[in-house]
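ASSEMBLY PREDICTION REQUEST
Request ID: AP-0331
Submitted by: J.K., bench scientist
Number of chains: two
Total residues: 655
Priority: normal
Notes: Please return the full assembly, not individual chains.
Input sequences:
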Amino acid sequence: MLAYIIRRIVQSVLVMLAVALVSFALFRYVGDPITAMVGQETSLEDRAALRENLGLNDPFVVQFARFVGNAAQGEFGISYRLQQPVMELILSRLPATLELALISGLAAFVFGVGAGVYTALRRRGALSTAIMTLSLIGVSLPTFLIGVLLIWIFAVELQWLPSFGRGDTVVLPWGWETGFLTQSGRASLILPAITLGLYQMTLIMRLVRAEMLEVLRTDYIKFARARGLSNRAVHFGHALKNTLVPVITITGLQLGSIIAFAIITETVFQWPGVGALFINSVRVVDVPVMSAYLVLIALIFVVINLIVDLLYYAVDPRLRVERGGVRH
Amino acid sequence: MTKPLLSVRDLVVEFPTRRGTLRALDGVSFDIAPGEVLGMVGESGAGKSITGAAIIGLIEPPGRIAGGEVWLGDTRIDQLAPEAMRRLRGRRIGMVFQDPLTSLNPLYTIAQQLIETIRTHMDVSEKVARGRAVALLDRVGIPAAARRIDDYPHHFSGGMRQRVVIALALAAEPELVIADEPTTALDVSVQAQIIDVLKEICAERGAAVMLITHDMGVIAETADRVAVLYAGRMAEIGPVRDVILAARHPYTAGLMGSIPTLQHAADRLVQIPGAMPRLDAIPAGCAFNPRCPQVMDRCLSARPGLKPVAPNHAAACWLADTGVTHG
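STATUS: Completed
Returned structure:
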């Protein structure tokens, strides 16, 4: 178990180094950083001196090592556009994105698993057919279109919910800016959360349904029925638990993509999160923010993957090899 | 004969398909007495497993019981409501499946699965149920049962898992155990042990056994009576000794001829020519007529019913009327 964790952590570090390399290359080769920093009238000598001062003439390996060292301490430099430390900028925007991702991920999981189980158990019911048909729409419509449609229906026509922004927020003592505590904050969260989570929900639902149908055909389910266990015990105790093993992986990975792809939703709803920050930075080639965002997203993916792999252990006893495998 | 524990009368099981309805079982009748071991043999697809599934009410949809009756004691069970049937499963009829490697839920310990089964049917505390579970495991021959009970299925070998499955099937002390090819998936060296355990433990508890198998050797050693199925119909049923030594149906005789024995060092094993017809192409008259060495005109048009040929012994063959035996 310990060896396994260590192996997985080493793998994670390697992945992060690879991403750091890409991120570093972005820094180094998308435009000349000196040109980005200095004004037009700076002399060539001054530029050369600055280049030397900033260590841009050092060998590639040295520069990369310095970049990794700084990144590990959360040091990504100063945003060209906003003239603030990048890490500060990202940290101030992160709560908005994380709250949005958390709510839409949670909703996607709960409704996805619920609808998946329901459609698997009532395969020919009218409601199941309706859910399956709707889910096709959820899978095939692009995110921005769903967002715009939702805004049109619920914000413009019905005027039930706000169409953009986060509403009022409250800053918690440790600096976390939350929208959960105010009425307008919660109302503002609904449409973006649906937009962001709909695709994941349909995906989880279809996965749960397919897995559940598969599991319901297995011998141990037949045997559980033959032992006279109640439908509830068979469906939720025996079938669902076996269904969840692959579902956990996909959901975990989806959580990563929810955070990463919040970019589109945040743009549609003018949600003040890191996704919107990234899009605005791309527009003006604000390289420090872009590379920091890249590293951050990679870090989130890697950490979630790690957690998912450890969750496997909790769910599936066959992976716990410390007991010495098959005994006779 | 004492009042039968299980009585199956003219059972018909059908599977509707796009190309018409298939009859997997066509008018099968037999009884099992309390504590009796009835062997059920036949080729793959003859309807052995379907018979077991029909009795315990677990035919996979769209298959359904289209006719006939199944009585367990004084209760007719083929038309019971799903909930009443569920209560009966495990409690009055237990079932052992073919493959012990896939019969147990891999995510639960043996203890969890046993205790769950016991407490579903009996109003006992967790602790009492656990005690019973350990005793059961001990009885089916799991060494160090008190310790092994908290292991997961993958910690056990195939033979040990089938012992666990038997313990699970018997956990609520059913009167009838349907064992569907319980040793087919196992190593030859442990097959005999598993059959012995099953037979002993059922005898101890007075449970009757319906032993589905295609291994005539197992039937000969274990069963009291044997039923031979062919293409969803009962070909012959009777005491094991009579059926083996004086088969009244040519198909049964063919089955017996295909068993190698040490006593008669035959050069070649007798083989029944041809194959069992598919369910959508069963010939008119006797289903066995295309392969029967003694086929007569009558067999091609009229279907023989199951008729008594000796005390306790019945066969569905026109020849049986004439007293011909196939020893």
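REVIEWER COMMENTS: The mean pLDDT of chain B is 88.
SIGN-OFF: pending second reviewer
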